[in-house]
Amino acid sequence: ITFFWVAGFILLMIIIFFIFRKRFTGSEVIDKDYWQQRWSLIQNYIQGDSEGEWKMAVIEADKFLDFMLKHKGIGGENLGQRLKVAQSKFKSLRDVWPAHILRNKLVHESDYKLDKSQAVKAVKSFRRAIESLK
Fold first, then answer.
1. Per residue in 7-31, pLDDT tens?
2. Taking a C-beta distance cutoff of 8 angstroms, is the pair 116, 108 a contact?
3. Is residue 56 within 8 Å of 45, Cβ to Cβ?
4. What is the residue-wise DSSP string for 87-103?
5. Cβ burial, residue 63 (10 Å; 0-12/13-18/19+)
6. What is the CA angle 90-82-113, rounded to 5?
7. Do residues 53 and 46 touch, judged by C-beta distance below 8 A?
8. Which residue of 26, 96, 128, 129 is 20 to 30 Å from 10, comparing CA positions?
9. How far are the Cα atoms of 56, 59, 81, 90, 127 from residue 43, in angstroms, in the given order?
10. pLDDT tens-digit profile of 37-85?
């Protein structure tokens, strides 16, 4: 019976380690395959022929930046708050505000008309911001 207690304790410690490993090891590097898959999806949307696809490109790029900031341990309830916090550490994030504001318009204003050049500019801005965090 002692063996089972010890084995259970070790298993519990392993589970706790994996749950909290970010706290123990700091920010880990994003897996290159994950980055490429995520960015490939965004590229497919931006190369599309419809406004709906361009909107998805901007929204997904915004979500990816939010993911990266969270991964870096930047606090805040939403991307806007995280950007405010992170600007002091990553000066390049100041340039992404217009792209994030465009994303907010796309999400909150159902009649907002997006042209492809706006979407391409926003996605490029998100990419620069994301790359500055790597």
1. 777 887 777 766 665 544 444 456 7
2. no
3. yes
4. TTT-GGGGGGHHHHHHH
5. middle
6. 100
7. yes
8. 26
9. 10, 12, 26, 24, 11
10. 889 999 999 999 999 999 999 999 999 999 999 988 888 899 999 999 8
Eight-class DSSP state of 47: T
Question: Two tokens at 112?
Answer: 């907002």
CB under 8 A, 24+ apart: contacts of 83-86: none
Q: Which of 2-11, 20-29, 105-114, 122-131 has the lowest mean pLDDT?
A: 20-29
Ordered alpha helix ranges (H), the chain: 2-25, 32-46, 51-71, 79-86, 97-108, 116-133
- The amino acid at 58: V
Residues 6+ apart with CB under 8 A from 87: 93, 94
Residue 86: CA atoms inside 13 Å, Cβ hemisphere, count?
A: 28
Q: Is the dihedral of CA 27, 60, 102, 116 positive or negative?
A: positive
Instruction: Report the alpha-carbon distance of residue 89 to residue 93 in Å, rounded.
Output: 9
- Residue 117: pLDDT band by 50, 70, 90 thresholds? very high
